[in-house]
Write a structure and sequence with these properties.
This is YCII-related domain-containing protein. The chain has about 80 residues and is an alpha+beta fold. The protein has three helices and four strands. The chain has a four-stranded antiparallel sheet with strand order 2-3-1-4.
Length: about 80
């Protein structure tokens, strides 16, 4: 599994709301496929986390094509995570 932390790097007035809509719709599809085990925003609005259950290559491809990454809204850091649920 991969734990990805996204950090917002633009102010809200610089962000097209459709980018968040596209991001959320895409994440919903990935949750339904079992690729995303969990995701959600931080309570303070500074970003969020996503837990991917897939290969490193697959999650890097997914995150690099995320509308929020493509449009420079967020940056991200990731770690391989040996999660226990």
């Amino acid at each position: 599994m991969w734990l990805v932390q996204l950090g917002i790097k633009k102010s809200m007035d610089q962000i097209d709301p459709t980018w968040f809509e596209q991001h959320n719709n895409r994440n919903q599809q990935l949750r339904e496929k079992g690729v995303i085990a969990a995701n959600g925003p931080f309570a303070d609005g500074s970003g969020g986390c996503i837990v991917y259950n897939c290969s490193k290559e697959e999650f890097v491809s997914i995150i690099e094509s995320d509308p929020l990454v493509v449009n420079g809204v967020v940056d991200y850091e990731y770690k391989e995570w040996n999660a226990a649920f």
